[in-house]
Structures are given as structure tokens and as C-alpha cells.
Amino acid sequence: MKLPNYIFFTGVPGSRWSGIAQILESVDGVNTSDRTVERTYSHHSYTGHIGAYFGRGMEFDPILDTDYIDQAWTETGGCKLVKSHDWAYQLNDIKKKFPDAWIIMVYRPDMASYGWWHEAGGFQIKYPCYDAYKNSPTMLSEIIEQNSAILEFGMINNCRWEYFSKSWLLEQFDIDIDIDVRSDILVSIIR
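Given the sequence above, the corresponding C-alpha cells read:
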């Protein structure tokens, strides 16, 4: 399978999108040279966050510029999975500025995401930094707005939403691994 140079990846805080990202980053041809010890956060029995995250107040701003984006990786080449909650607000711009890139969106209901984000560490999460979200009410508001933006973009672009499952991974990425399917997490891909 030929991967693009960039896959823009988005989901709201607590959508479990980081776990999905880690599975996608195991696909042959994905550049993971953005991973460092400082860019790793673990909680419970999960490696919650690995690699560069883009977003307001985070290590990298959500700037749609290849030179800026590429700074997060130490090696050139390969497909870069560019992760940001804020891409939810820039999906149309991504589609225009990066016509050869893929976009993957993760949807999980607002309250389930909000609850899991707090259980995963909330504002105590060490990487990435969530200070721009200010407080729990603002976080919930952002989750609602980001999910709405993701769903609206999906509707306008006739996206097909599916469970993140073994069959989805096989169909979309030709990888055959067993994963736990969660009944409240959906994914969509635009190529």
C-alpha cells in the first residue's frame, strides 16, 4: 500500500484517538522519528501519548506549513501521522492545502470522551500540554465544538463512519492485527 507523505489525524481529547494513532504508526512506511522520551505520557496500563502533538499551547502550534510540520521529525521521508485536536477546526484548509494527504477523524461521544480524558490524567497530563483549555468546563465546551466540527465536515464530505476494528485496519491499511472494538468509537478516512 502506498501511503501519502502526511496523514492529518484528529479526534477530541478523551476519544482514545492516541491509541488508534499508535496502531496506525505501526504500519510499514510510517515515520515515527517524532518519538522521544519527553513526548511520551503513560497512564493506567496504556502508553497514552507518543510522539509530537500539534495544538494551541502545545509543543507545536496547529500551523499548516510543511516546513513547520516537518520540524517535529528527526528523519525525512515516510508517512507522517500529524496529530492535533485542533485539526477539527481546519479540516477544509487541510483538504485545500494538502490535496494529496489523507485525513483520519475519530469520533467518540462528548461525555464519554470528557470522562476518559479526566480518567487519563486531565490537566495533570504531562505531554501534550492542555493548559490552553483552561478548566474542565472549557474542556467540555471544546470537546463539544471539536466533535461538531468533525461530524459536520464528515457530513459535507459524505464520509463513511465505521468502527475502528480489525476489518477496518485490513481494508484501509492492509494490516492484520487483533484489536479491541469499542462500540462508542468511530473512524473515517478521506483519501
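Strands lie at 6-10, 40-43, 46-50, 53-54, 80-84, 102-107, 162-163, 186-190. Try to locate this feature in the C-alpha cell string yourself.
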